[in-house]
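For the sake of transparency, this paper describes our internal protein records without simplification. Because each token names a local backbone shape, the row as a whole describes the fold. One such record is reproduced below, unchanged from the form in which we store it.
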Amino acid sequence: MPEARKQPAVRQAVRERAGGRCEYCLCPDDISPAPFTVEHIVPGKLHGTDTVENLAWACGGCNGSKGIAVDAEDVVTGERVSLFHPRNDVWNDHFAWREDRQTLEGRTPTGRATISRLNLNRPELLGLRRLLSLAGLHPPGG
């Protein structure tokens, strides 16, 4: 039996819950050149489970940058804080769009640490957001 995150029904449920967007950077999966993954929010190596509640829809860039991390350093305070947890945290509580509406900034230590660890303002994301903005498709939700 394949692990739960590889089962088509589980992948579809996780994708639908995420609205077809990476649960970290909000990139839409339908225009991504690389396939999205179902990732463990808390990895099995850190005693995370294979339940749907511990799975997130993630683009390759965010998943690769996150790795098995569940915390990172806040770039302002230098303290280690938990990374954004898509099941427990509200995205808008931790992140905001700068005036250019393409660059993310952290509203909280968790937001800042997540932006840094997952590199949520990497050049390819900024370029994608710029193109989506020109098409009237960014930022998500208006």
